[in-house]
Design a protein that fits this description.
This protein is of the alpha+beta class and 146 residues long. The chain folds into 2 domains: 86 residues, Winged helix-like DNA-binding domain superfamily/Winged helix DNA-binding domain (Arc Repressor Mutant, subunit A), CATH 1.10.10.10; 52 residues, Dna Ligase, domain 1. It is 45% helix and 14% strand. It is built from 6 helices and 5 strands. The strands form 2 sheets. It has a 3-stranded mixed β-sheet, with no helix packed on it. The longest helix has 19 residues. The chain is globular, with a radius of gyration of 17 Å. The termini are far apart.
């Protein structure tokens, strides 16, 4: 099963590079692999720190450039309206819960994200829908005793 997942990831990486006319580099491969299945909405710095464990020569500038290329091409989403810039590999319509205390960002799935795009369709061509909910996450609530 792991071999099959690796083969699918490799095929997807090859197709991604071919479609966007990008060189298949070790740096780009590492970033794409890191994002695959990642639900943490990483910052550039967090991604870079994690990726350097496997690829010590990877520069912070390269991570910025690759993430921005992926976002520009619509393969990931870039969020600039939080405390820091974050990236989300999930491009299907969904909402985000932002914790005011710890700054963590959580995905949630609701028909409201789909409905908002449909409701705005008469106003123009909707490219993305961003549904944001702010509050204090359960982890932070537990640390303050409820």
């Amino acid at each position: 099963m792991v071999i099959n997942m690796v083969a699918r990831l490799e095929a997807a990486f090859q197709e991604l590079c071919k479609k966007n006319r990008w060189r298949r580099t070790a740096q780009r491969r590492a970033v794409v692999e890191y994002l695959f299945g990642n639900t943490d909405h990483p910052t550039v710095e967090a991604a870079w720190m994690e990726l350097r464990k496997k690829l010590p020569e990877l520069s912070l500038d390269s991570v910025y450039r690759i993430l921005d290329e992926l976002a520009e091409a619509g393969h990931i989403r870039r969020f600039e309206n939080c405390r820091v810039i974050r990236y989300d590999p999930e491009t299907k319509p969904h909402g985000h819960f932002f914790c005011r205390r710890c700054g963590r960002m959580y995905d949630f799935f609701t028909d409201a994200a789909d409905g908002a795009g449909e409701a705005c369709a008469e106003l123009g061509d909707v490219s993305t829908v961003e549904l944001h909910v702010n509050g204090i996450c359960n982890a932070c609530l537990r640390t303050e005793g409820g």
